[in-house]
Design brief:
Number of strands of chain A: 24
Number of helices of chain A: 16
Largest sheet of chain A: 6 strands, mixed
Strand content of chain A: 15-25%
CATH topology of the largest domain in chain A: FAD/NAD(P)-binding domain
CATH topology of the largest domain in chain B: Fumarate Reductase Iron-sulfur Protein, Chain B, domain 2
Strand order of the largest sheet of chain A: 7-3-2-11-19-18
Shape of chain A: globular
Largest interface: A-B, 60 and 60 residues
Oligomer: heterodimer
Order of helices and strands of chain B: EEHEEEEEHHHHHHH
Radius of gyration of chain B: 20 Å
CATH superfamily of the largest domain in chain B: Alpha-helical ferredoxin
Number of strands of chain B: 7
Strand content of chain B: 5-15%
Structural class of chain A: alpha/beta
Number of domains of chain A: 2
Strand order of the largest sheet of chain B: 2-1-5-3-4
CATH class of the largest domain in chain A: Alpha Beta
CATH architecture of the largest domain in chain A: 3-Layer(bba) Sandwich
Helix content of chain B: 25-40%
Structural class of chain B: alpha+beta
Distance between the termini of chain B: 61 Å
Radius of gyration of chain A: 23 Å
Distance between the termini of chain A: 58 Å
């Protein structure tokens, strides 16, 4: 295989919101490359809809402490409170900065940035829903992605589009660079870089019904996990309450922020029973559980009683057109119903990983539970776990996370690069990877060991055994299934033996990351014998602060997973019962 | 139901030119065209190459020609198109493999029009103000996802690939009509050029091709008209 070498000070892997924000910070101070397996504007940040919270107080009284309280309470007290303070305090300047760079926020009559209600965000620590989410219609993520990319274009940032990073080189505990595969040619590229940021997004493709793009396969966490770096809080995976029935396409919480109501088959507004004070605007874990409960109790709609309705019919055509144009278009396109007149069939959809690569508040990757920093390696956005989202992320806080901690990752790269000397990689640095690829290419293809077969079984069984409600029984069953799938994966084969745009090869490599993400999710979930946030154990239904107010760190241990734990950093807010 | 799908295949490592391959697929009428491509790739021929990511019409990866018209494969359902379903790469850009084209010149044209806010005035500690009416003037063109469906549907672009094309003009429009931007004049100078907005012959192909429903031809007309005001 052809191997090409490049020399940079820093490399950012992934060009979604977090990667681009890091690039803007780092590019002026070093020789920087941004490497993405897509084109930057295809990144999944662009699919985010509803908004980005910041206590601007443009509509009503607000302050960042209330935002922090909501975030901590929403996290079911698992978030690290000093990190949450940073998130909520820096939110305000982050939104203003994006506006200065051109982000076309929706506006109030007085010309200020418009703000809307969102789940779990309240004024005065729970008194009433807060107008805190800054938005651009229901395409806020699209606007953030475009604005950050536009800024990068104006700065002349160097991109390697459609290059997929498949390995990191760490020698004696120090980062030296990454190895990437050029999708258009099949060539291997060695990137010398002493500072590397992983901003590769989530891994929703471990589940069958997901709001995530096909590209979200846990690449960054997978690469580091295979090098012995732990993954934090993997048992906490968020299911968004309102995915389009069967397809999983996201219908923003903004729909409920603007007044939309969830109804069961009898038309009952069932959230009144589950969250009497803020009802449909309860946090996502609670609403998804409520929907799953309604369905399991026979209150679901349709011939199989397996969905509920999102009702927007009382909002009026004008509000829908102005504030929810895209999501209502999705409904028209994919379900062929008119949401102005008819309620929409929805079900929870796999949406967001609270867990991921452990980092400190400066996006520096941690290699153990005592907080040892892995020099030169950073992560931000959904691939990272700071942890600001704890056991359940509030809506709008992910778009905030990517800019606040993306910026910090960029700053950390600058600090590190300015205090260290360039690292050299030998010409055979790509050998492990080229061997792996050549092995895959050489094996005769067999359908039994094809990527789609193994992946489909993985997604079906994760959906069945490790979704919203889990039990020791379901998780043990899934552990065994994953072990069998791992055995089959050892023999995985592909039919395409070509060099040009061989995406079958890349799907095979991504499948290994999906297996890693599933292993760590299931092992962490099996060990945590309590229910907290998005992790609901039917055999351990109570939250147990005495034993479990801690983060889990999942380490690769041969073919199994070893777990260690780290105490949560508390702050102003003592854990309390979580009621809305 | 069974659906007949014809895909224009080309592998630069083995083929001298493109050829049609026929596939008979079991499909649900509510499935997306993208789902059909996945069926071929995952269960028939793993070498089929196409781009895709979000699968619901917001990332812009999978623009292609389906039964002669540009569209996103993830945004059109089987029941909405006639059979046999003919799928080809978008036109006017070099084919890399199967349905994948080289997008370099497309993004180069985009970058030519200064697709970023230019305003060196001190913005202050808080957001710049903008009235909802001023915000509305460029609302339509903010929706662009750079999928190239418009540009590669344009007959002028097919014959003159130096033409910046509808997508670049749409992205210029997004800033030219933004009350916060100060570089309209520079952008309009660029678009006055021989390969700029006046190459448009208002064929309206771009407007019908846009998967985001942007009034592309109208945006180009707005830019042309604005160009006349700068001297």
């Amino acid at each position: 295989m052809k191997v090409i070498k490049h020399s940079f000070d820093g490399v950012i892997v992934g060009a979604g919101g977090a990667g681009l924000r890091a690039a803007i910070e780092a590019a002026p101070h070093m020789k920087l490359a941004v490497i993405t397996k897509l084109y930057p504007t295809r990144s999944h940040t662009g699919a985010a809809q509803g908004g980005m919270s910041a206590a601007l107080a443009n509509v009503e009284e607000d302050n960042w402490n209330w935002h922090a309280f909501d975030t901590v309470k929403g996290s079911d007290y698992l978030a690290d409170q000093p990190a949450v303070d940073i998130l909520c305090k820096e939110a305000i300047d982050s939104v203003v900065e994006l506006e200065h760079w051109g982000l076309p926020f929706s506006r109030l009559e007085n010309g200020k940035i418009a703000q809307r209600r969102f789940g779990g965000h309240t004024v005065k620590e729970g008194e009433a829903p807060a107008f805190r989410a800054c938005y651009a219609a229901d395409r806020t993520g699209h606007m953030i992605l475009q604005t950050l990319y536009q800024k990068c274009v104006s700065m002349g940032v160097t991109f390697f589009d459609e290059f997929q990073v498949l390995d990191i080189k760490i020698d004696d505990g120090v980062c030296k660079g990454v190895i990437a595969y050029e999708i258009a040619t099949g060539d291997i590229h060695i990137f010398e870089a002493r500072a590397v940021t992983f901003a590769t997004g989530g891994f929703g493709k471990i589940y069958k019904v997901s709001s995530n793009a096909h590209s979200l396969t846990g690449d960054g966490p997978g690469i580091l996990y295979q090098k012995g770096i732990p993954l934090e809080d993997m048992e906490f995976y968020q299911f968004h309450p309102t995915g389009i029935y069967r397809l999983g396409i996201l219908l923003s919480e903004a729909a409920r922020g603007e007044g939309g109501i969830l109804r069961n088959k009898d038309g009952e507004r069932f959230m009144e029973r589950y969250a009497p004070s803020i009802k449909d605007l309860a946090p996502r874990d609670m609403v998804s559980r409520a929907i799953a409960t309604e369905i399991s109790e026979g209150n679901g709609a349709g011939p199989n009683n397996d969905f509920v309705y999102l009702d927007l019919t009382h909002l009026g055509a004008e509000t829908i057109k102005q504030k929810l144009p895209d999501i209502t278009d999705f409904v028209r396109t994919y379900v062929k119903i008119e949401p102005i007149n008819e309620p929409i069939p929805v079900q929870p959809t796999a949406h967001y990983a609270m867990g991921g690569i452990p980092t400190d508040v400066n996006a520096r990757v941690l290699s153990d539970v005592t907080g040892t920093v892995l020099p030169g390696v950073y992560s931000a956005g959904e691939s990272a776990c700071v942890s600001v989202h704890g056991a359940n992320r509030l809506g709008t806080n992910s778009l905030l996370d990517i800019v606040v901690f993306g910026k910090r990752a960029g700053q950390s790269m600058v600090d590190y690069v300015s205090s260290t000397k360039p690292m050299a990689l030998s010409d055979n640095a790509a050998e492990d990877l080229t061997n792996k690829i050549e092995n895959l290419m050489e094996k005769d293809h067999s359908l039994e060991f094809s990527v789609p077969r193994i992946r489909e079984e993985l997604q079906d069984t994760m959906e069945e055994n490790a979704k919203i409600f889990r039990s020791e029984e379901s998780l043990e069953k899934q552990t065994k299934i994953l072990s069998d799938l791992r055995d089959r994966y050892q023999n995985v084969t592909i039919s395409d033996k070509g060099k040009v745009f061989n995406t079958e090869l890349l799907e095979a490599i991504e499948l290994e990351y999906l297996l890693d993400m599933s292993d760590t999710t299931v092992a962490s979930a099996l060990h945590r014998k309590e229910s907290r946030g998005a992790h609901s154990r039917v055999d351990h239904v109570e939250r147990d602060d005495k034993n479990w107010l801690k983060h889990s760190f999942a380490f690769k241990n041969g073919d199994s997973v070893k777990l260690e734990y780290k105490d949560v950093e508390l702050g102003n807010y003592e854990p309390k019962e979580r009621k809305y | 139901m069974n659906v007949k799908v014809n895909i224009l295949r080309y592998n630069p490592e083995t083929d001298r030119k493109g050829h049609w391959e026929e596939y008979i697929l079991e499909a649900d009428p509510d499935e997306r065209i993208l789902d059909l491509l996945h069926k071929v790739k995952w269960f028939d021929d793993g070498s089929l190459a196409f781009r895709r990511s979000c699968a619901h019409g917001v990332c812009g990866s999978d623009a292609m020609v389906v039964n002669g018209e540009n569209m996103l494969a993830c945004q059109v359902l089987v029941k909405e198109v006639s059979t046999p379903i003919k799928i080809e790469p978008i036109r006017g850009l070099p084919v890399i493999k199967d349905l994948v084209v080289n997008m370099d010149s497309f993004f180069d044209s985009y970058k030519k029009v200064m697709p970023y806010l230019v305003n060196d005035d001190e913005p202050g500690e808080r957001e710049r103000l903008q009235s909802p009416e001023d915000r509305d003037r460029f609302e339509d063109t903010t929706k662009c996802i750079l999928c190239a469906a418009c540009t590669t549907s344009c007959p002028v672009f097919w014959t003159a690939d130096t033409y910046v094309g509808p997508a670049a003009i749409v992205n210029a429009h997004r800033f030219v009509f933004d009350s916060r931007d100060n570089a309209s004049k520079q952008r309009l100078e660029i678009l006055k050029d021989v390969d700029g907005a006046f190459r448009c012959r208002t064929a309206f192909n771009c407007t019908s091709a846009c998967p985001r429903g942007i009034q592309v031809t109208k945006a180009i007309e707005d830019v042309k008209r604005e160009t006349l005001t700068i001297n």
